[in-house]
Amino acid sequence: MPLVLNVDKAKFFAKGNLLKIMITEKDGRVSELYFKLDPRSKKEADNVKTKKYYAKEIEG
Question: N or C: which end of the chain has fewer CB within 10 A?
Fold first, then answer.
């Protein structure tokens, strides 16, 4: 796990059971973090189908 300091910008993407975080630090370095999540139960999957998710960009 990389050490992240002085975050300038972060983008979050989620698709299926994968979470991707793209981080830009103030000195220009860019890091991409990937997380694989456990599969959803049938009940959780049904709840997700009824909601909309969007990628967000957070600037600091």
Answer: N
